[in-house]
Amino acid sequence: LAREPLKVMISGAPASGKGTQCEMIVEKYGLVHISTGDLLRAEVSSGSEVGMKAKEYMESGRLVPDEVVTEMVIARLSQPDAKEKGWLLDGYPRSPAQAQSLEKLKIRPDVFIILDVPDEILIDRCVGRRLDPLTGKIYHLKNFPPETEDISARLITRSDDTEEKVKTRLETYKKNAEVIFSTYMDLLTKVDGNRPKEAIFEEIDSLLQRICEGKLAPVKSI
Ligand code: AP5
């Protein structure tokens, strides 16, 4: 039975755990993970034209201009693998204009997941975060320390993970959240993100299972 591919949006404040949950979702569901943060960081390190435009915004914790990000996301969503396997959009849409760009193209998810984490936890998560440039894996000095000395030696810190910049990022998130959520009102699911990552994934997993089953159910004829 052919099934419509799964389409998921995941949102949440900086360091609410989007990337961490996406790693687990992708492993189980094989969706194409489209993280605008990761795509932009790759553009910055390659020194591309997009990267040069994005750099100063990202380093100060502000949003990159809508048109730069939107073009990148639409291009990625149009690739054959995203159409075949389904997609997991992480960190987009992040402004009312971005949400409208997708609405105009009639690109809607099956579900819009919001990871809910109290502000005071977010700062600590950002400041302790480390990334493995080789595998892209996300660590935390206290919560998820690296498995080996070798990994530990190559870990890097994001330049926007200082307390001051996290506060700017959080303000921007809060300013835009309501309008974006109202665009996806009928598809929202809020998940408590202040729990062990496995418990959070369990809840997301059963949500996605139910959606997949719904897609498989035969259409009842009237
Ligand atoms: P982006 O990379 O999207 O950053 P963000 O939204 O601020 O989210 P983070 O990546 O900081 O956090 P996360 O929720 O993925 O958490 P993680 O899993 O890593 O964007 C960066 C910048 O790019 C923006 O500021 C902007 O400039 C630009 N940009 C991106 N998208 C844009 C757009 N659409 N428009 C315009 N500009 C855009 O977890 C965080 C830490 O917590 C880790 O150390 C992790 O190990 C730990 N952790 C995770 N889960 C748990 C748990 N359950 N318990 C304990 N610790 C945990």
UniProtKB/TrEMBL annotation:
User: Which key words are in the record?
Assistant: Kinase, Transferase
Q: What is this protein called?
A: Adenylate kinase/UMP-CMP kinase protein
Species per Swiss-Prot/TrEMBL record: Dioscorea alata (Purple yam)
